[in-house]
């Protein structure tokens, strides 16, 4: 659809676009990104014929851009420039109707039935129908942006060129505009080329993107090929981290603010509270957490952890909602709390605080063996109702862990838990083999992310060894307490 070959040019000043080459396929959503002054708008001006080329060529469709008659080019390309102050006034629907100009035959020709149908369709798509009779000058920046997009779509172009289309739009309208564009790309084979400042939005919507710096191409490819830490850091000259969107395979970039002061806050046993029906750990600062909790599982930053005792017979269809209400009732904020449940009597919990050789960590285990399971046995799953977890392990660490260390800490804790069950000869009653855990065990690792750094937490490291030994001892102690209580019943 568009082929730029060694495009060179610019203003009669020091800045120039230097031999930029790329292609955009029909129906593709192509993003152009780069720091301020990198030449994105200048390149767009060349692609739309506003600035002449000093070298190279631009092919649109089958022929070079300068071979098009202006009206023919307007049926091929529509442009949505950056929003400027309006010096004229039109009604919204008149403004959109201007988009039909390339299809009008003679001077002063009237709009046809088809024109009106298209104008209405694009006003519905861009959600501006409700204010179609208003004056464009009375609209907010975001509303005006949608009117200009409707006008561009009314042009029924094969290629739509946009310069920062989400400027002035709130979150909901950014999504709505980009969803609309994406739908037009897929359903109408519209080719879209857009300049973006927001790397994350571009990563979510573009099929491919081009990164520019100093008038040159610094990378072209699928979003996951060009949006990575080192590349973005080098181009924008700022410190960033890369993460993935929680539900899309799109890389997302987060800024790393400079820390002017870093308080090395430590958590201690004072944060722990053991009540009859729940154990809580409340940290003075949010901790980076990885868990399989009932609420707020996965990675996140949380300051409160609650392990609630429930009866073995506990059965609730919406147990997440029920636990959320319970946590709120106890005066904790469910948004900042990881919640777990256990059928273990909380007096049987066992904990230890390890503070030696540069390590500082807290381990607490609630372990009962009521529904012990050998995960390797062929036992059949008996019903959909699962009895609430019995072995819950919390590791709370004063220190800075990498993501590898978080995962390794969970592995190490699990290995230690299994060893405790093996040594204690805990059996899966259905298979009569040694159990590896219970039916709904949970683990949580939470770290202050201040102070000492721990790149790894496997069995080859001091941290891993401390986790292994601590989890083993706490699990054995908790099982023993439970057994003793059962015997004295
Ligand atoms: N009309 C002009 N005459 C002379 N120089 C210009 C003109 N317009 C832009 N420039 C210069 O060209 C360079 C590239 O500008 P351009 O607007 O293309 O960058 P950009 O990547 O779009 O930046 P931004 O992200 O800030 O919009 C800048 O150094 C700018 O000062």
UniProtKB/TrEMBL annotation:
Could you tell me which Gene3D superfamilies the record lists for this protein? P-loop containing nucleotide triphosphate hydrolases
| GO MF terms held by the record | ATP binding; ATP hydrolysis activity
Keyword entries, A-Z: ATP-binding, Nucleotide-binding, Translocase, Transport
CDD domains in UniProt? ABC_Iron-Siderophores_B12_Hemin
Annotated signal sequence is none
Does Nucleotide-binding show up as a keyword for this record?
Answer: yes
| InterPro entries, per the entry | AAA+_ATPase, ABC_transporter-like_ATP-bd, ABC_transporter-like_CS, AdoCbi_amidolase, P-loop_NTPase
Q: Which residues form the ABC transporter domain?
A: 2-239
Name of this protein: Adenosylcobinamide amidohydrolase
Q: Which organism is it from?
A: Metabacillus arenae
